[in-house]
Specification:
By secondary structure, this protein is of the alpha/beta class. It is 27% helix and 25% strand. The chain has helices at residues 18-29, 64-74, 92-99, 121-133; strands spanning 3-9, 35-41, 78-84, 108-116, 136-138, 143-146, 151-152, 156-157.
Length: 166
């Protein structure tokens, strides 16, 4: 059985850097032959701010958009979240997408690629807490990209090669 991993693009902002970062991560992931990787753009699901009456933990989705999102999330064995850092946290759009479903995340694993002025590390700190509540095991290491040193003109991804011993 081949593992299926979602590369979750966690920004919906027009002109977002996240799309370039997610495609960069997907290109690297494609070099592996031990899992299948799929880019999942939360913008494609047009999730409004929590519009279901019953809490997601109940699994009683009544509208098409949470049903489609739940089906997509459930289809993966793990996730690689690509997140910006906005105001010392992840994007509201990603938090909303995560909160839309519950059981579909449970008992899986997640890793993180973050970006921002200080690499997006604080966004990932918050995502780790959220994933813990959703019973998702997180990978300790993360990729943290600085808008100042890992992008060209703050729009094109150009990560530095890590130095050995660091």
């Amino acid at each position: 059985m081949t593992l299926k991993i979602a590369i979750v693009l966690g920004s919906t902002r027009p002109g977002r850097n996240g799309e370039a970062v997610a495609k960069w991560a997907q290109k690297i992931a494609a070099q592996r032959d031990d899992a299948e990787f799929e880019l999942v753009d939360i913008a494609d699901y047009k999730l409004p701010h929590l519009d279901e009456v019953v809490p997601p933990a109940m699994g009683q989705y009544t509208q098409d958009h949470p049903l489609a999102w739940a089906e997509k999330v459930a289809s993966f064995d793990g996730y690689l979240f690509v997140t910006p850092e906005y105001n010392h946290s992840t994007s509201g759009a990603l938090k909303n997408a995560i909160d839309f479903v519950y059981a579909e995340w449970n008992n899986k694993a997640a890793g993180f690629v973050s970006y921002g002025s200080v690499g997006g590390t604080r966004a990932v700190e918050h995502l780790r807490l959220i994933m813990s509540e959703l019973q998702v095991a997180t990978v300790r290491s993360q990729v943290a990209l600085s808008l100042y040193t890992d992008f060209v003109s703050v729009s094109e991804t150009a990560p530095r090669r890590p130095q050995r011993g660091r």
